[in-house]
Amino acid sequence: MTQLDPAQCVKVANIGDDLWVVTEDYAYATKSGLQLVVPAGFETDGASVPRCLWAAIPPSGLHFNAAVVHDALYRTTAENKLPKSQCDDIFLEIMQRDQVPEERALAMVTAVRLLGYSSYHRGKTAAAQSLLEEHGEGDPQ
Questions:
Q1: Bridge partners of 44?
Q2: Pick from 36, 96, 99: which is nearest to 68 by CA?
Q3: For residue 139, is it within any domain?
Q4: pLDDT per position as a tens digit, 69-98
Q5: Which of 71, 72, 107, 137 has fewest C-beta within 10 Å?
């Protein structure tokens, strides 16, 4: 079984049924150099998978880091929001880094690409506003 380096894992505390709060800022630098920070205090449900599918894909697991970042990207305010396709690509990138089995990673990213439209457009929380940090100068996109 694959074990992640604890330094690469988002730190969370369980605050209810299938709900976690990030307890320390979680930083991730994309392959393209974009610096992302999920702030402490951000609440997540992990992978937003229907309960009937949890036997195959539970809310947490190797994909948890990717799910937390993806939740935060989807909930970022409009003025800082990345395009949905870029959010979904980052989700896949983190799953690949964390060695999520390829079939599972592809199934999960396909699901958010096809079914995540309403979540992307509805979620905007203050806790997610600080997610994007500029890498160098200019627009982070």
A1: 20
A2: 36
A3: no
A4: 999 999 886 677 899 999 999 999 999 999
A5: 137
- Single-letter amino acid code for the residue at 115: L
Q: Is residue 94 part of a domain?
A: yes
pLDDT band at 18 (very low <50, low <70, confident <90, very high): confident
b/e map 97-123, b = 16+ CB within 10 Å:
ebebeeeebeebbebbbeebeeebeeb
Reported for 14-22, long-range contacts at CB under 8 A and 24+ positions apart, including other chains, are 15/43, 18/45, 18/46, 18/59, 19/43, 19/44, 19/45, 20/44, 20/45, 20/46, 20/68, 22/68
Question: What counts of helices (H) and strands (E) characterise the chain?
Answer: 4, 6
pLDDT of residue 53: 65
